[in-house]
Amino acid sequence: MSEEEQQIPPEDANAPINVKVVSATGDEVFFKIKRSTKLSKLQGAYANKVGKDVNSIRFLYDGARISDTDTPASLDMEDNDTIDVMVEQVGGCVPCSS
Amino acid sequence: MVGSVNVVFNTIQGLAEYNPAIQELFECPVQINIKLDLDYQAKQQWDFVSPKNGESLSSFFNVSFLPRVRDASECLWLIETAVDLGSVLHSAADKHEVSTPKVFVTLQQTLVLKRSLLLILKNLFILGTSVIQPDVAKDSLRRISEPLRTLMAFDIDFDRIKEVKLKDFLYLDQKRCINDEVMNYFCSKWTRMWPTKQVIALTTFFSAKALFEHGKPREQVCDRLWEVTLTYGETAKRCTGFSRFDKAFVPIHEPGSHWFSALIDYEEKKIEIYGSWGPTYEQNSGVRPGAQNKSGTNVSRMSCT
Questions:
Q1: Radius of gyration of chain B (CA)
Q2: What are the residue boundaries of the Ubiquitin-like protease family profile domain, all occurrences included (chain B) (predicted)?
């Protein structure tokens, strides 16, 4: 494992990777992103592309929320990995009849 | 507090002597003192003042409201810097195999906690600056103060809710609704009802992905459920450090604006459903205590936990 890592030239550590963003309905959008770039940038770009408020959508990688400060490197993301997108869900209690 | 801060400064200075790079970072330790003072002030700003008679709303907003949230925002920035510097120091100490003093660790934890509090104030700041019309400003003030009071009353562990923002709680006030962030927060809070058990809360995203498709329950759930459960289960294991689970909360959003939660009990091999449907709750409230417990609504549980 460590041998493999050493073989990778330093430039590759920052080479862009392809990330697939998949919505709940199965629509896919592809992004190319540097491993050191904050994923919040990708989130903004995606929201722009699909015409939604970035605050009303949630991004998940392997079932865990992506926070604003995360980068592909901090999440150990690999080339061609998938990010899930969920839309905000709102619900309430039916008012009790009193 | 001042005493412990001094200890930290001494420690920092001690480390700074050790490494010139750290010394550069901590050139003006006095600033940290200011940070703590500002932080205290920011906490006082939770009490919102109303415009005085005769004072126009726009001038109130510009003169009384905005400067305070701006201070809070500045304070947040300072604290974030302090936390960042703290991490640098932490890793530097690790690198040079210097043990990190306990008091420093505590201070850093406190700062992280306060940062969350201030994040809410920063949201206020954004909201405040985006408001242009006085009428809207008045309404916003009213809307903000209520959820903030609610937040304070809940004794919320801010360290754990970095994803929940002020606007999520605003749903409670305006529409009496709950959104997924709030739901996930409360599910994770419920897991702490059994301190000795290994309880996890899956997220609303789990059920949305595994159980529903195009707003309808999935016709064929098996393959998909297996795959998604594996991913989410592994993530939960990684986050909690549990090797197995005793119970799991599964919050479910039924398309059509309804929340309920399943509680899977692996020990007793049963699944309980906590619905938030008013009439069911009313009906069961009068039946018997056992049944009442099982059908307690999510919403009422929230208000009493």
A1: 24
A2: 162-305
